[in-house]
Structures are given as C-alpha cells and as structure tokens.
C-alpha cells in the first residue's frame, strides 16, 4: 500500500508544482488545489494504513494497536476544510480577474507594479508590438 | 488561569463579532473596535505581568492529558510578542480614526482586522504544531479579505494584489502542512514539549530534512529570499493603517515561529541548517535594501525595507543556532527578540508616516511630493526618528539592535556577515536619505496641491507615541535587553 501511495504523492506533487508555476492564473489555482489534495494524502499516510479494523479500543485493552490512527484523519479533515475555503476564494479571484481585465496571463497583471518610466524596457508584452513566446 | 490565557484570542474574536453586528453603523463600529483593542492591550499586559512573576502560563484545551492535548503556553517570549501585537493594534485602530485615506474604510475592514489579530495572538500563544498551522491559516484568510477590500486604487489593483499574495502564501502553507505531517509521522507527537523530547531520538539526517522543510515553509511566510516578491507587490494595495499593521506583524509571526522551532522545539538544530539560514538571511538583507533603492513609491520602498530587516532577525536566529555555548546562544536569540521589538515599532511608524505624507503633500510617489520641511516641520522631525532608528544611528533603538547582532557575528568570527550588516545599514541610510530629500527637503513640484484633511489629530498622536517609544528604547535599552535575555533563557529546554 505504501509504495503505491508514495508514487501517487510524487506524481501529484510534481504535477501540482508544475501547474503552480504556470503563467495562466487558473492553472496556478488548480495546481494549488491538487497540491492541497496531495498534502492531505501525505497527512493520512502518517497514520497506520495497513489495518482495516475500526478504530475502537478492544475491551480489556488500553491502547489502539490494530487499527488506523484517527488523529491524522482529524488533521486531514481540518486541512480539507481550510483548503476548500481557500480554493473557493481563489477561484472567485481568478474569475474576477478574467472578467474585469479580459486577460488571465500572470505576466500581463501589472496593476500593482509601478508604472515604468525609466528607459529599461518593461517585462510585460505590449500586445501590438511584441509577439508572445513560442512554446 | 485558563481563561486568562485564552483571552488574547477570545477578545479579538468577540470584537470581530460585535463589529460584524454593527456593520451598518460606522461610528459604533469604530468605537467598538477601539474598545476591543484597548481590552486586548489590558489582557496582554496582565498576562505579561503574570508570566514575569510566576513563570510560563499553561492550559490544555479540553483538559486532555499532556502529550496529546492542544496546549496554549505563554512564556516570556510569547508574552512580549503579544504585548507588541496589542500595541500595534491600538496604534493602527487609533490611526484609522483619522481621514488619511481618500475614502472611508470598507465596513468589513474592522471585523477582518480583528480576525487577523485573533490569528496572530493564537499563533503566539499556541504550543502545538498543527494548531500553529491553523492560526497561520486564520491570518491568511483575514489578510486575503483585507487585501481584496482595500479602498485605494481600482478593483483591478486589489485583485492583482490578492492574487500575488495568496499564490506564494498558499504554497508556503501547504509546505508547512507537509512538514507537520512528516514530523507527526516521524515522532508521533505534535506538542512542542513532546517534540523537544522526541526529536533527539531520531537519526540526524531525518531531523535535518524535517526541520529544513518546516523552516522553508516559515521562511516563505517571513518573506525571505528568494520568495519575497509577493510582499512589495501586495502591501501597497492596502489602506494605510492596515498596511502598517500587516507590515509590523505578519512577517514577524513567521520569524517568531522560526525562532521557536530552531531555538526551542528542535534545538539543538543541525548546524548545516543554521548555516544555510545565516546565508539566506544575509542575501535577504542585501536583496531587500537594493530593491528599496530603486523604487519611488514610498510604500514600496518601505516594503522592501521590511524584507531587509527580516534578514537581520533571521541572521540573529542563525547566529544563535550556530553559537558554540549557551551564553552566546542566549545573546544571539536575545538580539533577535530585541530586533523584532525595535523593528515592529519602527516599521509600523514609518508606514503611518507615509500616510501622513500622503495627506499633507498629496501623493505616495516621491517624485510628486516635496517641501514638507517648510510646511510641516514637526512631521519632518517625527520622520527623522524612525528613519534614523531603521538605519541604526545612536541614540535610537535601531543602534542597539544592530550593535547586538553585529557583536554576535563578530564574536563567532563571521567577518563577511558582519560586513554585510554594516554595508546594508549604509544602503538603508541612502534609502532613508532619498525619502528625506524627495519628500521633505526639495520644493514641492507643480502646483501646491495640499490635501487638507480635517481630523488628522489621531494620526499625529499615534506617530508621536510610536516615535517616543523608539526614542525611549534608544536612550534606555537596558530594560528591554533584560527582558529579551530572560525570554530566551527558557528556550531549548531551560526552565
């Protein structure tokens, strides 16, 4: 079980990191959502995964040994809720950016940067003059 | 006892509720907000006095037994940070009563501000790793709300700032969660005391990887090199008082967490990590001040200075981790705490002053203001105090703070780090002189378009009090130094 889980974690963390570094704002948010899921899987993996008994202490004993640890599951629930709220918020922000400015390219979002008045060429592209990168 | 330790979190939450109920009545909301921050100040002062007299105050939430409960533990370090939080909250809220910003604050600003304060106080009080993550999230959510509201610039400015804030910070948060999950998997505990007992039993390489992940996440939250560009991009989109509060407090929660982790929970931290932290700190210092030297918007210059000064605090923590014996470790960690106190007050003061410059001269852009020495000489004097303190000129608090860091760097033989400390001070001086020259000394360009706002008195009051504290700390630093050393003596397994 653990090798399969570790492979799944590697793949999803790598994919989400690739998406987070994207120029497209929506892809970045989707990457963050996927990374949240991957991290929740990692938290879950820190409990014992190989058992299938319910997490009830058998009568006569005082410790839970043959079932999964419920504490990481509680941590995962908290993390899911927080991640869900942040994902909703970030999707609204991305939608608002796309609606109001018509663009979703991160390099074109220059509203918080100072207006370039120096002779150094601005790093974003003037759509009339330059051509976008070719992939 | 249990109630007292929960009050720093409960008071801002209660104020948040009350200000939500009075959303349609601005006057009531302002007064409730001010009273709430005053009550927070009283609570944390009582808590500080309790902690200094009788030692750390502890409570287990839910009454659960020791290694499994979520503990709230306030020792002298946490109490000092709480006092600073309350001070900054009072300063920002009093400042908000003046009409510095061109339009009145959005009705939801006060509730979100108190929500952020609750998160900050919770992060300082908690002694549980996952609980720390939760409080970081509370701060993040409220900060995102405040960034999205704003009231200066257009909608697109706010949305851009929100996006540029949440993408790196969410990445940092998820990295923090990865670190927490791995630490729990390795040790089976989440409480700071239990982790401190359990960490030495693990192999050194494993502890190095775990603590590295944790520190990396906290460094993203503290705006260290190389992931700091979100700070100057997003902070200028806030209203002035909120920006001053954020500038003073949010990154310091990150550095407090780094101090707690490296100096207390996982001490003795592997040397290679502290070495890496020292180099990151040095590069952060230089990157911040060089960024500040380029820009013309006062808020952006000051935001880059936050980054530069965070480098100083991180350098002090790294020197503490690399110290050969516990006496010099205490000196270095004490220097980190002293620097944090000095910096929170000075940085918030500078941002509030930038707001007053906007109100008196009409712009945040240095190329469009001027002549303030002639029209508002008191403002010039009040600017000189925190500006020179930031540079490190005696007899202001920054001199002692930088001297302590420099002494520790020289005592450990780190010549390059000491040289960087000094040269970054010179570059900070250049930056402050640029602001002085452009905003105060030179004549006002163009028409004398002075924005006359009627009630600026609360703003003047706040700035005077904060400058006074800086001057006081500079003239007699002994008390704060003693409290700092007392605070760090209990770190790393002390009493």
Describe what this molecule looks like in 3D.
The complex is a heterodimer of chains A (135) and B (495). Chain A is mainly α and 135 residues long. Helix content of chain A is 53%, strand content 0%. Chain A has helices at residues 2-20, 25-45, 70-101. In chain A, helix 1 runs antiparallel to helix 2 (25-45). Chain A starts with a helix and ends in a 34-residue tail after the last helix. The model of chain A is unreliable at 125-131 (pLDDT under 50). By secondary structure, chain B is an all-alpha fold. Chain B is 76% helix and 2% strand. In chain B, strand 1 and strand 2 (70-74) form a beta hairpin. The longest helix of chain B is centred in the C-terminal third of the chain and has 36 residues, at 326-361. The radius of gyration of chain B is 21 Å and the shape is globular. Chain B starts with a helix and ends in a 6-residue tail after the last helix. Classes of the chains: A mainly alpha (135), B mainly alpha (495). The interface between A and B is large, with 34 and 38 residues.
Précis, in short:
By secondary structure, chain A is mainly alpha-helical. Chain A is built from three helices and no strands.
Features of this protein?
A: mainly alpha, 3 helices, 0% strand, B: 495 residues, mainly alpha, two-stranded antiparallel sheet, 19 helices, globular
Q: What's the assembly state of these chains?
A: heterodimer
Enumerate how many helices of chain B there are, as a single number: 19
Please bin the fraction of helical residues of chain A. Answer: 40-55%
Order of helices and strands of chain A: HHH
Major sheet characteristics of chain A: none
Mean pLDDT of chain B: 91
Our count of helices of chain A gives 3
Topology order of chain B in helix (H) and strand (E) letters: HHEEHHHHHHHHHHHHHHHHH
What Rg of chain A is obtained from the alpha carbons, in whole angstroms?
22 Å
């Amino acid at each position: 079980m653990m090798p399969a889980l570790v492979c799944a974690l590697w793949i999803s963390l790598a994919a989400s990191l690739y998406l987070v570094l994207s120029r497209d704002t929506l892809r970045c948010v989707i990457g963050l959502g996927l990374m949240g899921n991957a991290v929740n899987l990692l938290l879950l993996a820190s409990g014992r995964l190989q058992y299938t008994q319910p997490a009830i202490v058998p009568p006569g004993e005082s410790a839970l040994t043959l079932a999964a640890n419920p504490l990481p599951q509680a941590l995962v629930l908290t993390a899911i809720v927080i991640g869900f709220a942040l994902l909703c918020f970030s999707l609204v922000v991305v939608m608002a950016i796309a609606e109001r400015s018509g663009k979703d390219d991160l390099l074109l979002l220059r509203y918080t940067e100072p207006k370039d008045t120096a002779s150094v060429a601005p790093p974003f592209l003037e759509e009339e003059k330059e051509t976008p990168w070719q992939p | 006892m249990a109630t007292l330790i929960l009050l720093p979190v409960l008071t801002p939450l209660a104020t948040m509720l009350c200000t939500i109920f009075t959303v349609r009545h601005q006057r009531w909301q302002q007064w409730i907000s001010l009273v709430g921050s005053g009550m927070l100040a009283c609570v944390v002062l009582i808590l500080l006095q309790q902690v200094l007299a009788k030692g750390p105050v502890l409570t287990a939430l839910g009454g659960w037994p020791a290694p499994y409960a979520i503990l709230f533990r306030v020792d002298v370090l946490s109490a000092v940070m709480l006092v600073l939080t309350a001070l900054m909250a009072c300063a920002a809220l009093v400042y908000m009563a003046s009409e510095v910003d061109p339009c009145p604050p959005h009705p939801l600003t006060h509730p979100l501000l108190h929500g952020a304060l609750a998160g900050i106080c919770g992060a300082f009080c908690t002694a549980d790793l996952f609980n720390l993550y939760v409080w970081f999230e509370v701060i993040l959510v409220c900060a995102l709300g405040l960034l999205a509201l704003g009231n200066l610039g257009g909608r697109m400015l706010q949305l851009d700032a929100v996006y540029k804030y949440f993408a790196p910070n969410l990445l940092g948060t998820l990295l923090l969660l990865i670190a927490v999950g791995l630490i729990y998997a390795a040790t089976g505990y989440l409480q700071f005391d239990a982790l401190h007992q359990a960490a030495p039993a693990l192999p050194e390489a494993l502890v190095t990887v775990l603590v590295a992940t944790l520190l990396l996440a906290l460094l993203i939250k503290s705006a260290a090199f190389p992931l700091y560009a979100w700070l100057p991009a997003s902070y200028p989109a806030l209203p002035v008082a909120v920006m001053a509060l954020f500038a003073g407090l949010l990154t310091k929660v990150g550095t407090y967490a780094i101090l707690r982790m490296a100096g207390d929970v996982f001490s003795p931290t592997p040397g290679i990590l502290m070495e890496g932290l020292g180099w990151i700190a040095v590069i952060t210092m230089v990157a911040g001040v060089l960024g500040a030297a380029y820009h013309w918007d006062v808020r952006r210059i000051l935001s880059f200075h936050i980054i530069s000064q965070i480098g100083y605090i991180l350098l002090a923590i790294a020197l503490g981790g690399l110290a050969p014996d516990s006496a010099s470790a205490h000196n270095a960690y004490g220097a980190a705490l002293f620097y944090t106190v000095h910096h929170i007050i000075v940085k918030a003061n500078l941002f509030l002053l930038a707001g007053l410059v906007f109100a008196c001269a009409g712009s945040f852009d240095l190329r469009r203001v001027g002549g303030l020495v002639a029209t508002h000489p008191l403002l010039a004097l009040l600017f000189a105090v925190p500006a020179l303190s930031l540079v490190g000129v005696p007899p202001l608090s920054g001199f002692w703070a930088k001297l302590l860091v420099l002494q520790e760097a020289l005592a450990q033989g780190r010549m390059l780090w000491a040289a960087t400390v000094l040269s970054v001070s010179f570059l900070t001086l250049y930056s402050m002189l640029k602001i002085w020259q452009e905003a105060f000394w030179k004549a006002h360009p163009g028409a004398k378009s002075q924005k006359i706002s009627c009630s600026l008195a609360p703003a003047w009051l706040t700035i005077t009090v904060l400058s006074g504290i800086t001057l006081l700390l500079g003239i007699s630093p002994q008390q704060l130094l003693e409290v700092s050393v007392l605070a760090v003596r209990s770190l790393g397994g002390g009493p």
